[in-house]
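Inverse folding, one chain.
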């Protein structure tokens, strides 16, 4: 709910913050539940945005707290849980179809995040929202074959967000089947897009000098999900990917608490099996160690998830630029809780990108990204061609930046 009073939003944030630790405190939660100024509409709006509404229903139910939720929001919580149960059951059937399509097209692929995490980390799959399917192809030719197979099977391109430009995957596709959005994020009929990845993340990213993660295919492993076997990344590569995914979305102001919960549960279930020396070595090669530290620190503060041993944590910390390190240690967790991907703050995104720079060369590249993005990105955004697009870009970005600063200043004065 945009434009809510700061005091109302703080109560909503406090409710979510008390609900997401790996071992939530029922007494603390009950105290928040009984606050007379708790606005349930805003709390559930924020929970929806973070992708955790079905999980809250299950967590509060286990703690015998649902009786303290008024009837209307309680019914909504139950509805999201039922609908997400159905959605994730459908997703398992869809994965079987995708595996068959890829096998018939002779596509070698790894399943990223998504359903493997649901099946491995969540005893009740309905607790975790599954937005899409991410398939990492062995190379660009495999990715193109996979994309062609999807299109032949009736998948069509997903409309892209203005200004979105990625090189880590081919255009997203889905099987729309006449679906029309109605503003309900857990709609059983809403299709899940499929993305054929050629890389785990964009490289370079926002001007930062990040590289691909090395040897991902050499360390892949097989797991069984229901009645289908799929390739997934190693424990260490999955950890790095989860960290970078959370951290980059946090910088871009689109992170969700649900992403931190994936990481928290992975750490709780796998921490003793992880080869942390491998994590550091791979992260260093890809120049994403700073993002691993950011994500681990914020997730620990939010959920109480275990951190690596002190020597490992110190090594990660030492590889993180001081400004980014100070920000995440002081503000990262609170910042993530307050995020609403439906209202992004462009000015904060640029400030955090600069904080993540590790050299003057990177600072120059980030500045160039902000002012002079790739021409193909502008052509995609504006649907036109010509050098004049840069003037249009600078004018538009300047307006967005100033409006974001004014909005931030207004919130500070509330």
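Residues assigned per position:
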């Amino acid at each position: 709910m945009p434009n809510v009073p700061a005091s109302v939003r703080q109560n909503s944030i406090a409710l979510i913050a008390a609900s997401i630790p790996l071992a939530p405190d029922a007494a603390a939660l009950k105290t928040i539940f009984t606050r007379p100024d708790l606005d349930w509409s805003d709390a559930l709006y924020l929970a929806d945005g973070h992708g955790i509404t079905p999980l809250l229903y299950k967590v509060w139910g286990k703690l015998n707290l649902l009786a303290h939720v008024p009837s209307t929001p309680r019914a909504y919580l139950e509805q999201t849980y039922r609908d997400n149960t159905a959605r994730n059951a459908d997703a398992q059937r869809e994965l079987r179809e995708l595996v068959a399509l890829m096998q018939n097209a002779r596509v070698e692929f790894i399943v990223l995040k998504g359903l493997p995490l649901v099946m491995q980390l969540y005893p009740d799959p309905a607790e975790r929202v599954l937005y899409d399917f991410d398939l990492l192809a062995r190379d660009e030719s495999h990715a193109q074959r996979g994309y062609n197979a999807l299109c032949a099977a009736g998948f069509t391109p997903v409309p892209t967000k203005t200004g979105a430009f990625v090189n880590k995957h081919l255009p997203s596709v889905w099987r729309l089947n006449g679906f029309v959005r109605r503003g309900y994020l857990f709609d059983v009929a809403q299709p899940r897009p499929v993305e054929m990845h050629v890389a785990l993340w964009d490289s370079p990213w926002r001007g930062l000098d990040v590289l691909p993660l090395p040897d991902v295919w050499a360390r892949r492993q097989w797991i069984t999900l229901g009645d289908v076997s799929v390739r997934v990344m190693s424990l260490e590569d999955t950890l790095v990917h989860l960290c970078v995914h959370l951290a980059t979305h946090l910088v871009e102001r689109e992170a969700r608490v649900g992403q931190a919960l994936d990481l928290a549960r992975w750490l709780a279930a796998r921490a003793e099996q992880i080869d942390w020396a491998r994590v550091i070595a791979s992260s260093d090669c890809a120049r994403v160690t700073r993002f691993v530290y950011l994500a681990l620190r914020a997730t620990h503060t939010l959920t109480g998830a275990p951190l690596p041993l002190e020597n490992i944590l110190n090594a990660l910390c030492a590889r993180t630029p001081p400004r980014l390190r100070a920000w995440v240690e002081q503000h990262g967790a609170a910042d993530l809780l307050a995020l609403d991907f439906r209202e992004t703050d462009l000015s904060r995104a640029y400030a955090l990108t600069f904080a993540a720079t590790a050299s003057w060369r990177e600072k120059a590249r980030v500045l160039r990204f902000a002012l002079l993005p790739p021409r193909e990105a502008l052509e995609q955004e504006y649907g036109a061609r010509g050098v004049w697009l840069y003037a249009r870009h600078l004018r538009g970005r300047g307006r967005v930046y100033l409006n974001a600063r004014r909005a931030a200043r207004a919130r500070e004065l509330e």
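The first strand starts at residue 109 and ends at 112. The longest helix spans residues 71-104.
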